[in-house]
UniProtKB/TrEMBL annotation:
Keyword Hydrolase: no
Gene Ontology molecular function terms on file: ATP binding; ATP hydrolysis activity; transmembrane transporter activity
Name this polypeptide is given: Cell division ATP-binding protein FtsE
Pfam families named in the record: ABC_tran
Taxonomic path: Bacteria, Pseudomonadati, Pseudomonadota, Gammaproteobacteria, Alteromonadales
Length: 222
């Protein structure tokens, strides 16, 4: 699903965000990506989601070498990736249904198909009956679930999450991680960036650890 081969990312002023990183996330696998702030977690996710290009090395995504992908091929490959952020990035003046269906609206789907798939996505994240609500009237955990529903509406094989529980209390954080677990059980590959070691220790999944841009650990948290 995701293969990094000797991947480095260097920004201006010779700032090394990632340094010769190697790892492989298999199809249908769920893993955590951890490390202190500035360790390179967000950069790694940005490389996978084609927001950035590697300086050196090779990145294979679902069999495609995306290291030097042409710009006009990026939108097609991004349809295979669901992206979730710490900030929900919801449109507060639009209903939950409108927020979830936005990716399909952009792609030109019919109103009927957008509604059908949006309701199915909301049901999957436990928000049936909230489709006509506005995000401002939802709790933080519910808003995050709306963001997850929007990310999975295209049924992507890969789900990336960047600090998805950073603004939530421990109880809500566990609920969101349980949701990721259920999505993984549907067959979706899931990679979650987080600095909360206590939280991920309870999940017992493979953990990839970055430190100053280098992968220093690749295995289950002990």
């Amino acid at each position: 699903m995701i293969l990094f081969e000797d991947v480095s990312k260097v920004y201006p002023q010779d700032y090394i965000a990632l340094n010769q990183v190697d790892f492989h996330l298999k199809q249908g696998e769920m893993a955590f990506l951890t490390g202190h702030s500035g360790s390179g977690k967000s950069t790694l996710l940005r490389l996978i989601s084609l927001m950035e290009r590697p300086t050196t090395g090779r990145i294979i995504l679902d069999g495609n070498d995306i290291s030097h992908i042409k710009g006009n091929d990026i939108p097609y490959l991004r349809r295979h990736i669901g992206m979730i952020f710490q900030e929900h990035r919801l449109l507060m003046n639009r209903t939950v249904l409108d927020n979830v269906g936005l990716p399909l609206l952009i792609e030109g789907y019919s109103r009927y198909e957008i509604k059908r798939r949006s309701l199915a996505a909301l049901d999957k994240v436990g928000l049936s009956g909230k489709e006509e609500s506005f995000p401002i009237h939802l709790s933080g955990g519910e808003q995050q679930r709306v963001g997850i529903a929007r990310a999975i509406i295209n049924q992507p094989p890969l789900l990336l999450a960047d600090e998805p529980t950073g603004n939530l209390d421990p109880k809500l954080s566990l609920e969101i991680l349980d949701l990721f677990k259920s999505l993984n059980e549907y067959g979706m590959s899931v990679l979650i960036a987080t600095h909360d070691l206590g939280l991920i220790a309870k999940m017992r999944y493979r953990t990839l650890t970055l430190k100053e841009g280098e992968m220093i650990n690749d295995g289950l948290l002990r």
